[in-house]
Amino acid sequence: MLIETLGAARDLGRLNTILGVLIRHGFGDSVRRLGLTDALARAGHALHWEHAADLARVPPPVQVRLALEELGPTFVKLGQILAGRADLFSPEWIAEFEKLHSGVPAVPLDDLRPQLLEDLGAQPEVIFKQFDTTPLAAASIAQVHSAKLQDGTDVIVKIRRPGITEIIAADLRWLEKLAVVAEAQLPWLKPYRLQQLVRELARSLKRELDLANECRNAERIASNLAQLPWIVIPRVHWAFTRERINVQDRIVGIAGQQLHLLDNNGYDRKLLAQRGANAVLKMIVDDGFFHADPHPGNVFYLPGNAIAFIDFGMVGRLSKRRREDLLKLLLGLVERNPQAVADVLLDWTGNEPGIHIDQLEGEIEAFVDQYHGVPLAQLSLGQMLGDVTTILREHHLALPSDLALLIKAFITLEGMGRSLDPGFHMTAEALPLLRRVLRARYKPKALAQRAWQALRRSVGLVEQLPRDLSRLLRNARRGQLHIGLELTHLKRVGNQLNQAANRMAMALVIAALVIGSSIVMTVQGGPTLWGLPAFGFLGFCGAVLGGLWLVRAIWNSNHDSDDH
User: Fold this and answer.
1) Is 247 helix (H, G, I), strand (E, B) or coil?
2) pLDDT digit string, tens, across residues 145-177
3) Cα four-point dihedral sign 5, 8, 12, 15
4) pTM
C-alpha cells in the first residue's frame, strides 16, 4: 500500500516515469520487490515491461549510468556524487559514474525572457551592451551566455532553467521515500546508506540551485587565496546576480583539456602543477573550504603561468577537527605509520556493528608497510588514498560525505598535476605544508588555547551534572523515564498486526450484516425490491461486497508473501 501511505498523489506521474526507466534498464525485479508495480497498477498507471530484456544484457554499472542520464538532472547529480564515493563503489562503478555529464539541449531564449525580465528588470539586450543569444554551454540546471557590460567588460551570464526546481523537488520527495523502503526491503542495499546519500544529494542540489550561492563561494575562496597572486577567481557582478541568475567576469585562457597548447605558448608545466597543488592544499588544510570539483573543465591557464578556477557550485567544508584528523592521516601515510592511519579511519567510520577491528588494522598495517623504503618522490598520495578507500569498502565501512568529497578532490588534483608534469608528486608538495601546520598546532600558544577550551567544556559539564541527575531521578520516580529504541522489524510486524485487525473487524461486520439481513428477511411488511424485503436485500449485497474485498485482500497478502 505504498502509494496510499506515502500520500504523494501529486507526484505519481513522475514516479511512473522513474519506474518505467528503471524497468527498461533491467531493474524490474528490484521494482517488483519494492511493491511499487502493484501500487501503481491500483492507481491506474501502466508500466511497460516488453523491452526490458533488451538492456538487461548490459553490465550493471552501464545500466545504472544510462538510467541516471535518462532520468534527468537530479539523478545525474546523484551519479556525480556517487563518483566520489570510492569507499562505497568499486572502480568499474566509479568509472561509469565519472562519465555522467549534465549536458542537455539549451532552452530557447524566448522561454527564458519572462524570468530574465523579472530578475533583471529589463530584457538582456537592454541591460547588457551585447548579449549572445546562443549559449556557450547548457547543463541540466543552468545554461551560460556570453555578454558585455555597458563599460565593455566581458562577462558570462548563467541562467537557471525554468521549472527545474519543481522537477528536482518531486524527484527528491520520491528518492527520500524510496530510500527508506529500499533499505527495509532490499538488505543488500544497506551498506550503500541510501538515506544518507539522498540527504547529501538534497543539500548539494539546494546549494547549486541558488546561483547567488555559487558567487558567495567564489568570493570566499578568492579572499582566502588573495595572497597567491597567480590564482585568479572570476569577479562577481552583484548588481545583476540573483538566485536564478549570476554574472561573472569571463575567463579567457587555455582550457584544462587543451594541455597541448601550453607548450607552444611559453607556459611552464612544472610551475603550473606546483601552483595548482599549493592553491588546493591551502584551501583544504589552511582554510577548510575548497573547490570540490577541480577537474580540467573547471580550470584555465592564463599568461604568466597563472591559474583560474571557475564554477564553485560544489564546494567542500572541513571543520577544524576534521583538518587535524586529515593531517594525521596524510602524515601517517607519508611517514609509514599504520597505527596512526588505522586510528583516524576507525574514528571517521564510527563503531559499525560486526566490524573486525583486528583484521582491519592488520590490512592497513600490511598496506602501509608495502611502502617501507620507497623514496618519497615515488609515493602517489592519490593512489594511497584510493587504496585506503578500497580497504574500507571491503569492510563495508563508509566515510562521512565531506571526507569522501575531499579524497575525490585529492585524487583528481594529483591526476591533473601529473598530466601537466609527469614528474609531479603530490606527496612532495604536501609534506612541507602538513609539517608546518602540525608544528603550529603544538606551539605553546595553540596548546594553551586548546587546554583552556577543554577546561571550559569540562567545567560546564560538571556544572550541569547535578541538574541532569536530578531530572533523571525525578522522571524515574514519576514513571516518566523513557528509553528510545528503533526496531524496524517490530514496526513491520506492527503494520501486519494492524492489517490483520482491520480484516478481523471487516469479517465481524460482514457476519453481522448476514445475521441481521437474515432476520430482516423474516419480517413481513416494509419496502421491497424484486419481491424481497429491501433492507434485508441491501444488507446481503453489502455482505457480498465486503466478502469479495476481504478475499482479495487476503489473496494479495499471500501473493506478496510469496514474492518475498
Assistant:
1) strand
2) 999 999 999 999 999 999 889 888 888 888 888
3) negative
4) 0.69
